[in-house]
């Protein structure tokens, strides 16, 4: 709306200048060219454009399947859809049905009400097709895709109230080909109330259907935190109509996947070099290899990472693409049939704990701090104090390199581990296993001694409160008084439940654990004490980055810890910021959304706890099953005799040991 306001100001300014000219040149000119009230004319144009589309905008209500996404309650509030066929087909946002409602009701613009059934879903563009038993429905005109222009007027429409008129929000198209070519972007205010509604041009034609989307995440709830932010997205109606026959046939459309990971780099400058090829994926079956450089997809030249995402953005499972790669001096062209689902990645496990290098240490290889019981490393007779210098035929420089090499192998593979043991070279054979779902009863912690003398520029230690610069939020933290910047510290981010920050209790319970295990505890505060909003995720990310700048934080031991409904926000943060968080310790709350794909390059682990008398215990058990099905390493601890309560000290100590071994290899 700010851009719209600026355009109105500019146009009004031109009118004022024209009026001045009229006054100077005389009344004859003024009579020939009457003053036009542009604001009134524009408002009238918006009303007329929306009136053209209004008969095709329907109200959707869902019943049953109650669920929450952050503080957004789905399954109860009315939302919006658009008629796409006169015989009763309606398109809407998939977000509106994330709660899997028991029934769906559609109210037409004339007040008639019909039960609806869900026909099919487009999981790539996140829209859902409904069917009602009605005929002769009004269908809006489609705005041609090649006519979209940045800066053109865009009207977001919804029908969520009992009023006969739809609700409107006016803005402009602010960007084209967003979210990897799938959507247009608008600055009109978008919210769950008009998700599924049309984005309309000034001529009363439908540009697209409003949906929440995100470049960082996938799924039906991705992007919902941007509502009313001036960043909204619409799937072009032309693209929806192109796949409408398949949706009408009941076919769920899935995004097409090759099964590759590209090497990290500047997405707008770096070449598209394949880093990993997933096991049993279309890419592996087609013969693509790590190190291949993608040169083209379906004849479209690829020079940058971002172009691969755009080339695949509108491809569906079942489609076949032609990929040309450079392999050394050769060019290799392959046809690849895309799939909608990849085999879940199973993390591999050797079972050693690496010595954490102090600041400035440059020792080559990985010195073993400890060996986990019954692990492949234990069976291979690798010992504490051994220094791993090579895996198979590849030299090992550090723990990150060893983890990367192990993560590229499969469970059951045998590897040759070359170690230096007190100056003697040994080659040991280990058979890789799955990550265990238990925490050792005993796990020695690193001994960290306070620096002597204490540096003058040492950051704050002990417990303190602070506002985060640039954000309208505050936080509290505890840093061990013995903090030594030569050592890396784990970071525990406490996400409090609604209505109670639990600061005093959390500090008192975790202080001795932090002192013993080399952990820093930080407690962000929600803007509204009643609970967290999804749009506060950026504050949490900024807070973690602030702690990383001020303290030496071990990136492999940054975890989210929460209790009760605070866990919902923790799960959201962990899935949104995969490159930032390495673990979630969640107590007494199940995961209510589908977990994403487990990624080999960004490991994420879970520690769940719940009392066996808690009404949510069975759902927490089901959460463990769901996460394990996606091959996430997950520990579940049941507390005998406990109801819905924060974990007792023995469970907190187990969580601390679990955090202490998140950097295991």
Strand content: 25-35%
Q: Which architecture name of the largest domain does CATH use?
A: 3-Layer(aba) Sandwich
What is the CATH class name of the largest domain?
Answer: Alpha Beta
CATH fold name of the largest domain, please?
Rossmann fold
Cα gyration radius (Å): 29 Å
Q: In which order are the strands of the major sheet placed? A: 29-30-32-31-33-34-35-36
- Separate helix tally: 14
Mean pLDDT: 88
Structural class by helix and strand composition: alpha+beta
- The total domain count is 5
Specify the biggest β-sheet: 8 strands, mixed
Outline, from the CA principal axes?
globular
CATH superfamily of the largest domain: Alpha/Beta hydrolase fold, catalytic domain
N- and C-termini, Cα separation:
51 Å
What is the helical fraction, as a range of percent?
A: 10-25%
Find the count of extended strands (DSSP E, 2+ residues): 36
Ranges with pLDDT <50 over ≥5 residues? 1-35, 66-75, 219-226
Concise description?
The protein is α+β, with helices and mostly antiparallel strands. The protein is 23% helix and 30% strand.
What does this structure look like?
The longest helix has 24 residues, at 2-25. The chain has 665 residues and is α+β, with helices and mostly antiparallel strands. The chain is built from 14 helices and 36 strands. Helices cover 23% and strands 30% of the residues. Helix 10 (503-517) crosses helix 14. It has five domains: 1-35; 52-248, Beta Barrel (Thrombin, subunit H); 260-337, PDZ domain (Pdz3 Domain), CATH 2.30.42; 348-434, Pdz3 Domain, CATH 2.30.42; 462-660, Alpha/Beta hydrolase fold, catalytic domain (Rossmann fold, 3-Layer(aba) Sandwich). A hairpin with a 4-residue loop joins strand 7 (113-122) and strand 8 (127-131).
């Amino acid at each position: 709306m700010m851009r719209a306001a600026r355009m109105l100001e500019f146009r009004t300014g031109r009118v004022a200048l024209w009026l001045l000219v009229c006054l100077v040149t005389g009344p004859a000119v003024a009579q020939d060219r009457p003053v036009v009230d542009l604001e009134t004319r524009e408002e009238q144009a918006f009303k007329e454009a929306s009136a053209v589309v209004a008969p095709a905008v329907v109200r959707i209500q869902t019943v049953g399947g109650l669920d929450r996404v952050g503080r957004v309650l789905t399954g109860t509030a009315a939302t919006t859809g658009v008629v796409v066929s006169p015989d009763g087909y309606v398109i809407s946002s998939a977000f509106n049905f994330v709660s899997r409602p028991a029934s769906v009701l559609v109210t037409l613009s004339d007040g008639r009400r019909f039960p609806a059934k869900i026909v099919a879903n487009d999981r790539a563009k996140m829209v859902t097709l409904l069917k009602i038993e009605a005929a002769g429905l009004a269908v809006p005109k489609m705005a041609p895709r090649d006519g979209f222009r940045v800066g053109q007027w865009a009207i977001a429409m919804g029908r969520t109230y009992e009023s006969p008129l739809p609700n409107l929000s006016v803005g402009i198209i602010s960007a084209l080909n967003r979210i990897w070519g799938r959507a247009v972007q608008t600055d009109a205010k978008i919210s769950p109330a008009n998700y599924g509604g049309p984005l309309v041009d000034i001529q009363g034609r439908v540009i697209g259907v409003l949906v929440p989307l995100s470049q960082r995440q996938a799924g039906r709830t991705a992007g919902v935190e941007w509502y009313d932010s001036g960043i909204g997205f619409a799937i072009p109606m032309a693209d929806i109509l192109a796949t409408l026959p398949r949706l009408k046939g009941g076919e769920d459309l899935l995004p097409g996947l090759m099964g590759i990971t590209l090497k990290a780099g500047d997405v707008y400058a770096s070449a598209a070099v394949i880093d990993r090829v997933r096991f049993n994926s279309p890419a592996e079956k087609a013969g693509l290899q790590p190190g291949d450089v993608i040169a083209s997809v379906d004849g479209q030249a690829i020079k940058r990472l971002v172009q691969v995402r755009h080339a695949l953005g509108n491809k569906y499972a079942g489609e076949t693409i032609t990929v040309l790669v450079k392999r050394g001096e050769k060019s290799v062209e392959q046809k690849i049939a895309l799939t909608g689902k990849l085999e879940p990645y199973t993390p591999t496990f050797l079972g050693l704990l690496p010595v954490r290098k102090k600041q400035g240490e440059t020792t080559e290889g990985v010195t073993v701090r400890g060996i986990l019981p019954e692990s492949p490393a234990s069976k291979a007779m690798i010992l504490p104090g051994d220094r791993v210098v090579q895996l198979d035929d590849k030299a090992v420089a550090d723990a990150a390199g060893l983890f990367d090499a192990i993560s590229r192998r499969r469970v059951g593979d045998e590897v040759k581990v070359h170690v230096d043991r007190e100056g003697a070279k040994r080659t040991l054979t280990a058979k890789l296993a799955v990550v265990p779902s238990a925490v050792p009863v005993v796990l020695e912690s690193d001994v960290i001694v306070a620096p002597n003398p204490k540096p003058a520029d040492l950051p704050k230690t002990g417990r303190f409160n602070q506002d985060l610069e640039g954000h309208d939020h505050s936080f509290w933290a505890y840093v061990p008084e013995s903090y030594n910047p030569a050592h890396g510290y784990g970071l525990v981010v406490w996400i409090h439940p609604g209505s109670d920050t639990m600061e005093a209790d959390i500090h008192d319970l975790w202080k001795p654990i932090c002192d013993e295990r080399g952990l820093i505890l930080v407690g962000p505060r929600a803007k509204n004490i009643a609970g967290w909003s999804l749009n506060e995720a950026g504050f949490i990310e900024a807070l973690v980055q602030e702690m990383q700048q001020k303290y030496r934080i071990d990136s492999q031991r940054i975890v989210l810890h929460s209790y009760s409904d605070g866990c919902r926000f923790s799960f959201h943060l962990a899935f949104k910021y995969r490159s930032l968080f390495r673990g979630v310790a969640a107590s007494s709350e199940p995961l209510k959304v589908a977990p994403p794909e487990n990624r080999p390059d960004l490991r994420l682990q879970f520690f769940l706890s719940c009392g066996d008398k808690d009404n949510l215990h069975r759902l927490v058990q089901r959460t463990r099953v769901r996460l394990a099905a996606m091959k996430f390493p997950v520990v579940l601890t049941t507390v005998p005799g406990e109801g819905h309560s924060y974990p007792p000290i023995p469970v907190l100590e187990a969580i601390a040991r679990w955090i202490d071994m998140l950097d295991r290899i």
